[in-house]
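Practice problem. Given the sequence and the SMILES for pyridoxal-5'-phosphate, write out the predicted structure.
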Amino acid sequence: MPADPSRDDPVTDPEELLAELATLRSAVAAGRQTHVGFPVATDIDYSPLAPLFGSLLNNIGDPWTDPAGANHTKRYEREVLGWFADLFQAPVDDRWGYLTSGGTEGNLYALRLARARFPKGLVYHSADAHYSLPKCLDLLGMDSVVVRTDERGEIDYDDLAGVLDQHRDRPAIVVATCGTTMTEAADDVPRIRRLLTRAAIRHHLHVDGALAGVPLALADGRTSLRLNSTADSVSISGYKFLGTPVPCGVVLTRRTLQQQLGQAANYTATVDTTISGSRSGHPAVLLWYAIRSLGRRGLRERADRARELAAYAVDRLNEAGWPAWRHDHAFTVVFPTPPAAVTAKWVLASSAGRSHLICMPGVSKEVIDEFVADLADAVDPRPRQRKRRAPARRTTRPTAEVAPTTPADVLHSAPCPR
Ligand SMILES: Cc1ncc(COP(=O)(O)O)c(C=O)c1O
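Answer key:
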């Protein structure tokens, strides 16, 4: 039956609404502990900023033109962009960027910019690049070539050189990934740049650094993400390493490149240089708060601790007989997909017999120990169940879920290289 358009909605009692919101909040908090497969830091307390969520903050248009009125945070956005531009070593007099809705928008912006530079450009990205790339290419109507990766998820440089050579007649738009979604592999950006220079092909080199861009740039001595001589654009996610409570991201490039895209002033008093029109102004203050309260050193220490925990997780899993590995720079620990008893409780990311957990800031040693203990139980429940004094856990786990499984059962479909 069609809905009656004159019917009013039932109005819910305010106390009932608050109770429902409290239930939602508890459910989100309860799930946080076992949500280890996805890269979201949970250690930064953003609650002092909660009162700001009572107002609309709209950073419409270019970060360097302020809209009329006070309900925006462009000053904070510019400070945040300056911080990221310094981090990625963008030239002081030739830098530009804006705060996006997330990694996808950053990739979309960068590809649109690259297309403006090279309308006949051919896009190259690896087989392990994020799924947003094919979507952006489809939206922009750009041709692309998928480049092979090695078994640990890094782009195959010989394959890239080969396909570049086959298409020498077209400019190259190469997307390098710093932090692939399954293994957190980081393509070697300077090596790709050298390859492009040696091939003497006009090019735009974009870095999708959604997850690992910031931690890699924070690590001392890493020059791979320089926005002057190496990369032409970089995009990162704000809610991953910096754990903002709303999705957001940053895209950066050089101003001289950005100016190749059309930009028009309009009735909002701002210049329309971004993909979306209205943009939330909250992420600018959230990122500003994280940067100001922790500083580069605090952020670097968080990354170091996350890597130490990931190394610990690899050791613990290997000791438990479940072969695990990680890239040296990575927070991500890769291993054969555990038995159903484990995946029923722990939210892991799994694909083709492989799973990962990510030791983002906020994950503790205790969480890793509990995960490994659950895995050991699931692989060989009997002796450990006698040792563990946790009746609730024993009784709630159905027998079928703890059927002994060995890594060998799954390894045939889950290579654990090196
Ligand atoms: C490498 C990479 N690129 C892009 C994205 C897309 O980011 P978002 O979901 O913020 O649009 C992600 C998200 O997981 C990612 O890992």
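Check your answer against the key. Residues 48-294 form a domain with the Aspartate Aminotransferase; domain 2 fold (CATH 3.40.640.10).
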